[in-house]
Amino acid sequence: MANFAPPPGTADIFAAEARRWRTLENTAASVFSRYGYGELRTPIFEYTEIFQRGLGGETEVVQKEMYTFEDRGGRSLTLRPEGTAGVMRALSNTDVLNGVEQRVYYCGPMFRGERPAAGRRRQFHQVGVENVGRVAPLIDAECIAMLMEFLRELGINDAKLAINTRGVTADRGPAGELLRNYFAQHIDTMCDDCKARLDRNVWRILDCTQEACRKVVADAPDYVASFSAESRAYFDEVQAALTALGIPYTVDPLLVRGLDYYVHTVFEVSHSGLGAQTAVAGGGRYELFLPGQNRPVPGVGFAAGMERLLMVQDALKLNPPGVDPASFYLVGLGAAARMANLKLANRLRRDGVTVALELEERSFKAQLRSANKSGAKYAVIRGDAELEKGVAVVKSMADGSQSEIPEGELFEFLSSHR
Fold first, then answer.
1. What is the C-alpha to C-alpha distance for residues 128 and 139, in angstroms, rounded to an integer?
2. What Rg do the C-alpha atoms of the chain give, in angstroms?
3. What is the pTM of this model?
4. In angstroms, rounded to a whole number, what is the distance separating the alpha carbons of residues 354 and 357?
5. What is the pLDDT of residue 207?
């Protein structure tokens, strides 16, 4: 048989795994709604400038990873590489620009042209939230608390939270110059990407994974000390709120996240069950510019990789949700019996009963094997003789006992034994 695999970096999701995905989505909806968030669904592609303007032209995502194409009208479109920019584009059509708070969550596929790895696909899936329109340290802390509660309800209780501050835009000049002067002294020993980042985006050097660069980064100066007193006070209040909520965290000065729009609080949650790629979720506060707007839209949010959440659950040996077997398997011997069973199954299903049945001509023994394999509680057996007599034979698959039930009483009997 030919093996028609999906494109590299994508995957087919069959029923057993899809049930686990639905559990993630339903848990997200349950938790986020308790915090006042409603679902928002945006297109999976946007005008390319939405991401170029929103994420920043110097980010790795925009420069290297976006799936961009031109449509028949000559418009440049891009499959969404992340959820925030599209959400903000949608919310810009509301009164959020007037400071009216909007709380939304989303889930769905994202697309990045990066090298596939464990928990990292070219079509991957995220669940995320955005709280848009207002700025306050306690909003940031509440957002982080909601993420940790979401993970707790998924059974992920041992994830590690790291936080940091990016300050505000005005802080970036002095802090960036401090880092640039330091890294310039060591740039000859660093990787080619970091050599390019020195002038293009010095902040990305802080999260480089190359061993030679990590050694240099470890001794980088404390750039947060150069931030304004207001920025440092903002971060102090976020930390105080997390402490008051009893949420453990560490401050990681090397955590900057990969996108240019972040300001103030940034955070990341990791778990050892993912192996080398430990991040399971992350986010922070941001100011995002949309095309045609000179004033940024403020918000705070996070995204969690759904594939990675499933991997963590696997590492923790959390039992995935099963599927309830059919209550009844309808065995039909002959065309008339199969038609009668089809009508009965339709009536039971409308009543909320899970039913399996045989719809093609097969032997009695083969149908009983299928009934046993299905996990059904009872087999309901009818053939020409049962139809003529006006009864059905109901067989317990647990102990093999069976009884004849009159046709007029069959529906009520089965409904009460589901």
1. 16
2. 28
3. 0.85
4. 10
5. 81
